[in-house]
Amino acid sequence: MNLILFLAAFCVGIAISVQAAVNSQLASAIGANSVVAALVSFGCGTLVLCLAALAKGGLGATLAALPSVPLWKFAGGFLGAAFVFGTVFLAPRIGLLSLVVLVIAGQLLTSMAIDHFGLIQMAARKVSPVRMAGALVVVAGVAITLFGDRIVASMGR
What we know:
- The protein is mainly α.
- The chain is 80% helix and 0% strand.
- It is built from six helices and no strands.
- The chain is globular and about 65 Å long.
């Protein structure tokens, strides 16, 4: 695997955490309106992507192909909006750490299923027992992160 791509993925993870914190602060600054904060965040992202698409070129041909695309393939935008809204809404309520470890657990388990079974027209990549063990370690880490203090406190009684 390419180390640069792994580092890029790691940076995406950093961006997700920072994005959740920044969007939470945006919501707080505008009267705790999570929906409007998510809308503003998506609006800023849309502007940046429009500029990048214009700079790349070929926008007309790409847009012309959109009518032939099956509707379900547009679900990514809805899921992205749900993700941004979810992080804006949940971060101040459950804390950024709890939010992120639960997001990671959800991503991990869903990604394993998509890879293993080749869901959503992705290439099937069988999940090996070693990768399954790694996922279980991550899920255990999520449980310790969420409930570790309570577990330790109950053991001390």
